[in-house]
Amino acid sequence: MNCNKIDEEILYIVTTLQKASYETYIVGGAVRDMLLNIPPKDYDISTSATPEEIKTIFKRRTRIIGHRFKLIHYYAKNRRIVEISTFRREPPETQKFIEIKGRLRPNDNCYGTSYEDAWRRDFTVNAIFYDPINNKFLDFTGMGRNDLERKILRTIGEPTLKFAEDPVRILRALKLIGIYDFFPEEQTEKAFLELMPLIRNTSISRLSLEFEKILKNQNTGKILKTFLDYGFLEYFLPNLNSEFMQNPEKKEILFALFEEWNKRISTGRFRISMSIALSLLIAPFLPFIVNLNDAMKFEEKRREIDVSIFIKKLIYPHIFPKRLLAISIEILFLQSALLNFRKNHRIMKHPHFHHALEFVEILNSVIWKNNDLSLKLSMGKSLQ
Fold first, then answer.
1. Which end of the chain is more exposed for a tag (fewer CB within 10 A), N or C?
2. Is the dihedral of CA 100, 104, 106, 112 positive or negative?
3. How large is the greatest C-alpha to C-alpha distance in the chain, in angstroms?
4. pLDDT confidence of residue 101
5. What pLDDT, in 10s, does the model give residues 71-88?
């Protein structure tokens, strides 16, 4: 592994902690992606230093967050946040729970060694540690690198207990299957298929946060398709699942839209945008979208269609920030102005013009396939 390819600030954090005599590694998804020759988008760091010791070293650039699971947020350049956690271990039976604000909570602040920390993680492919200073990988479970090479997804420990302990791990397992084309190990697959209904016991706020992460991923379509194929969509997005059952053709349109979006992101033509992703999710199910002539008049139908209610119903039970919903709605309605571009040049001054233009390009590429419109949209881009 070439250390020159790793973010400079990440190297600075690891080097600084190691020089202070703390065992420190890059961990989790970043290491998995490195071994798959995929540039990591985010880095997590784990160390033997406690949150208080880390803060003493980096001072104002850090903040201690969390009660149940205390860790450090390191504020890097470009408003990035790097999470630095302390090695954990399973607490003894007498310390399984602690009192926080008058309530008993699981004790996740029982610090341990790097070996113990690796064995607490969810999947073997996520439990490989990397020391960039000494260019050394540590596979404490002895299965991680082999499973990664064979594209096998395996829980660490007994699968049923692992998923029952935290049902969100089922969601994360399916995300890994969708994004990386992993094959679930037999017992792992059996466990998450049986325990899927437990996801309903997870708080809406936590599930909504996981949904936001899916929309921020360029593989949104692949993830949702995996949820559908394994029957998880019924629990995660029940109304979308019902729409797919009733309108199979809309399902095909939706996945084609996300596939096109993924291609454009991969080639660098588009950037990942949660608001565009949400607009694409909604588009196939809205009236006046699929037909180009109707789409040109969509703005006129604004009073007839309460898009906000429609979106909230489709993404139920999740709750998104009002600003995200508002931007997605603007993108949907701006298409009329874009489709009548010559009549409305003021549209270029709209704050969401660029996103709306990308959205319409995708719709035209997948649904309308109108060559004249493609030329018009290209002219619009050249005028930006």
1. C
2. positive
3. 72
4. 59
5. 999 999 878 899 999 999
The pLDDT value given to residue 208: 96
Segments of the chain scoring below 70 in pLDDT: 1-4, 92-108, 288-305, 340-345, 372-384
pLDDT at residue 370 in the model: 73
Q: Whose structure tokens read 């096998």?
A: 152
CATH architecture of 1-150: 2-Layer Sandwich (3.30)
Measure the CA–CA gap between 289 and 285, rounded to whole angstroms: 8
Tally of CB atoms within 10 A around 246: 9
Q: What is the Cα–Cα distance from 290 to 375, expressed in whole angstroms?
A: 20
Question: 158-236 is classed in which CATH architecture?
Answer: Orthogonal Bundle (1.10)
What is the 3-state secondary structure of the chain?
CCHHHCCHHHHHHHHHHHHCCCCEEEECHHHHHHHCCCCCCCCEEEECCCHHHHHHHHHHHEEEECCCCCEEEEECHHHCEEEEEECECCCCHHHCEEEECCEEEECCCCECCHHHHHHCCCEHHHCEEEECCCCEEEECCCCHHHHHHHCEECECCCHHHHHHHCCHHHHHHHHHHHHHCCEECHHHHHHHHHHHHHHHHCCHHHHHHHHHHHHCCCCHHHHHHHHHHCCCHHHHCHHHHHHHHHCHHHHHHHHHHHHHHHHHHHCCCCCCCHHHHHHHHHHHHCCCCCCHHHHCCHHHHCCCCCHHHHHHHHCCCCCCCHHHHHHHHHHHHHHHHHHCHHHCHHHHHCCCHHHHHHHHHHHHHHHHCCHHHHHHHHHHHHCC
Domain boundaries, the chain: 1-150, 158-236, 246-382
Q: pLDDT value at position 309?
A: 86
Distance separating alpha carbons of residues 125 and 146, to the nearest angstrom? 9
